[in-house]
């Protein structure tokens, strides 16, 4: 059996699945979509128009090299020891503008746009985070996994909290 | 004025009483007076010299509600102006920072040089202006007071304030520790992070100085550090908190304490030791040789410094510079940066940045547990059955007049000091905030009387 390069429909299905797992709080399922060495990166902004580009010399909002960093975040959010994490805000990821940038036999690059609608139940407060995703997908054990996710958050004046489940 | 400002703070040191009325955090009239008298009536922090390093470089900031333009003129002299065109009031500089020999107002093209002098009024000759207009100054309004201390820039919209050195007083010795780490000085790591929270600005003021909340508000962060220690691995970002006894219940002896300085500045600190988890570890020897062991040990301690009312430098878990900008009684804007010594190694810088993101970002694992707690307080302040808050009492019997041997070792005095074990968690240092607050509010009270 030869593996076909990923189609846009398959890429969309993967992004929608990730969105659903985050929105439903199935964070184990979400982590399982990532490779062990996955990069998870949300840059900060150097100035009004330029996001930071070098995570070793410039600040990021979130930067983890390896899924263990995401596992820490999930652990914290579930620990019952973080007042910011409970009650869990209600989030809805809407993903659009999906394009397959490159599609090789074992690796693919997918660009998309996102809006996350968030309702903070405790504060009765609703807002949105929006921006662009760039997913690097890698074929591992016969399935596509997320090897890198870069999140460009466009509205970066953060209303109190932003976490992995709301971007 | 209907609110009795002095009645909001119950300060009776001889009776061991210090209480604050919840209304100080919620009353719109109090907030309006704070903006006018605390933020626009005295010294406030504006930014760092390094934000405008070369001729004609500029950055924008704020003094209370007033937009401010800090510009380095062609001769290299820094100046601060109200960032507002004298013509119709539009903000002149539109961006956070840049370089401009000339600032052209986007509304009617009045033009100013980097020293604030008016260099052009569009179609002036055709304007049929009166002599009175032509004879008047059209330059940018300079801030009435503008001074720097070792790269930290402060301004005052009120001309009638003491010199900056007097305002900073002994707290300057602890700014020295921030600046004095490297030979090359300090810089802001590129990438500013801005966040808001729906609560009063003084909650941030207090939280920075609050040793009591650490194990209560941040156990999830502490547990994550423990997980990383167990798992190990080169990718795991380490933290000075891993090895610190400063908050451990098992620790004994002096683990930290606080200093209260004149004019509302405070420092709380915890003993850390020269830890390999600190980005400065590579420089420990050089720092000792240059500054002496006492100063070096202080540099490695965790130190949270507040320069009243709007500057905080937090050196714990990494290093952060914060500007507190009140927006409303129940809303605050925080402008934050990672502060770093120039010339540190790439590896140390990387560690500092990773530690910072974990702890200080609103997208990290500690700050959200603070800001959400502030919002919880703000909602709780509605409860006025007993208006008096009891969070200013710890340490009352430990607070001593003056500094102590540890501050003396770096040539610093203080108005009051506390030496603490891991569980004392002084709250008397907040008294300085509220006494300075009352001092700044004095003109409002005089008018109300």
UniProtKB/TrEMBL annotation, chain A:
Would the keyword ATP-binding turn up in this protein's UniProt record? no
- Quote the Gene3D superfamilies the UniProt record gives: 3.10.450.50
Q: Name one GO molecular function term.
A: dioxygenase activity
Give a single Pfam family match: Ring_hydroxyl_B
- Show the InterPro entries listed in the entry: NTF2-like_dom_sf (IPR032710), Rng_hydr_dOase-bsu (IPR000391)
Keyword Oxidoreductase in record: yes
Keywords associated with the record: Dioxygenase, Oxidoreductase
Of which family is this protein a member?
Answer: Belongs to the bacterial ring-hydroxylating dioxygenase beta subunit family.
Annotated protein name in UniProt: Aromatic-ring-hydroxylating dioxygenase subunit beta
UniProtKB/TrEMBL annotation, chain B:
The alphabetical list of record keywords is: 2Fe-2S, Dioxygenase, Iron, Iron-sulfur, Metal-binding, Oxidoreductase
GO molecular function, a single term = dioxygenase activity
InterPro entries from the UniProt entry: Rieske_2Fe-2S, Rieske_2Fe-2S_sf, Ring_hydroxy_dOase_asu_C_dom, Rng_hydr_dOase-A
Show where the Rieske domain sits.
Answer: 43-122
Keyword 4Fe-4S listed? The answer is: no
Q: Where are the transmembrane segments?
A: none
Q: Name one Pfam family in it.
A: Rieske
Read off the PANTHER family from this record. 3-PHENYLPROPIONATE_CINNAMIC ACID DIOXYGENASE SUBUNIT ALPHA (PTHR43756:SF1), CHOLINE MONOOXYGENASE, CHLOROPLASTIC (PTHR43756)
Family, per entry: Belongs to the bacterial ring-hydroxylating dioxygenase alpha subunit family.
- The protein's name is Aromatic ring-hydroxylating dioxygenase subunit alpha
């Amino acid at each position: 059996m030869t593996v076909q390069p990923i189609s846009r429909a398959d890429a969309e299905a993967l992004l929608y699945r990730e969105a659903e797992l985050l929105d439903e709080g199935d964070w184990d399922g979400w982590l399982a979509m990532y490779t062990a060495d996955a990069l998870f990166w949300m840059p900060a902004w150097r100035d009004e128009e330029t996001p930071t580009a070098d995570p070793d010399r410039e600040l990021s909002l979130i930067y983890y090299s390896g899924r263990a960093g995401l596992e820490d975040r999930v652990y914290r959010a579930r620990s019952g020891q973080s007042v910011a994490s409970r009650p869990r805000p209600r989030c809805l990821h809407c993903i659009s503008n999906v394009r397959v940038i490159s599609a090789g036999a074992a690796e693919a690059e997918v660009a998309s746009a996102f809006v996350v609608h968030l309702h903070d139940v405790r504060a009765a407060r609703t807002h949105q985070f929006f921006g662009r995703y760039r997913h690097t997908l890698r074929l591992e054990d016969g399935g596509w996994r997320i090897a890198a996710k870069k999140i460009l958050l466009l509205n970066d004046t953060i209303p109190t909290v932003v976490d992995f489940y709301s971007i | 004025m209907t609110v009795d400002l002095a009645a909001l703070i119950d300060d009776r040191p001889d009776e061991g009483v210090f209480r604050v009325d919840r209304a100080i955090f919620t009353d719109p009239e109090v907030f309006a007076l704070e903006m006018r008298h605390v933020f626009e009536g005295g010294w406030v922090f504006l930014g760092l010299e390094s934000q405008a390093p070369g001729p004609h470089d500029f950055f924008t900031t704020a003094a209370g509600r007033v937009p401010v333009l800090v510009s380095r003129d062609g001769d290299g002299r820094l100046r601060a102006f109200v960032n507002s065109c004298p013509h119709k009031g539009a903000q002149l500089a539109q961006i956070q920072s840049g370089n401009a020999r000339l600032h052209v107002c986007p509304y009617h093209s009045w033009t100013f040089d980097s020293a604030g002098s008016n260099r052009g009024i569009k179609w002036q000759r055709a304007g049929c202006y009166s002599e009175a207009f032509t004879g008047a100054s059209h330059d940018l309004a300079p801030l009435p007071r503008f001074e720097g201390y070792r790269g930290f820039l402060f301004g005052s919209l009120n001309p009638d304030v003491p010199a900056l050195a007097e305002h900073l007083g002994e707290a300057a010795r602890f700014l020295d520790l921030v600046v004095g780490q490297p030979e090359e000085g300090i810089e802001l790591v590129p990438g500013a992070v801005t966040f808001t929270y729906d609560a009063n600005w003084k909650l941030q003021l207090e939280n920075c100085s609050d040793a009591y909340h650490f194990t209560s508000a941040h156990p999830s962060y502490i547990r994550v550090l423990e997980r990383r220690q167990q798992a190990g691995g080169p990718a795991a970002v380490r933290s000075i908190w891993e090895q610190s006894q400063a908050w451990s219940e098992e620790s004994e002896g002096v683990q930290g304490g606080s200093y209260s300085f004149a004019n509302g500045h405070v420092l709380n600190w915890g003993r850390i030791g020269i830890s390999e988890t600190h980005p400065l570890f590579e420089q420990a020897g050089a720092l000792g040789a240059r500054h002496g062991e006492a100063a070096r040990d202080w540099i490695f301690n965790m130190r949270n410094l507040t320069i009243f009312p709007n500057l905080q430098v937090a050196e714990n878990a990494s290093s952060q510079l914060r500007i507190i900008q009140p927006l409303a009684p129940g809303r605050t804007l925080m402008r934050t940066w990672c502060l770093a010594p120039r010339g540190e190694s790439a590896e140390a810088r990387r560690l500092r940045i990773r530690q910072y993101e974990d702890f200080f970002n609103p997208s990290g694992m500690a700050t959200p547990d603070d800001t959400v707690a502030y919002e919880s307080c703000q909602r709780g302040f509605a409860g006025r059955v007993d208006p008096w808050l009891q969070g200013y009492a710890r340490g009352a019997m430990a607070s001593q007049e003056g500094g102590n041997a540890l501050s003396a070792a770096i040539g610093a005095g203080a108005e009051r000091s506390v030496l603490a074990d891991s569980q004392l968690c002084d709250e008397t240092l907040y008294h300085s905030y509220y006494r300075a607050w009352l001092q700044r509010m004095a003109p409002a009270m005089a008018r109300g009387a």
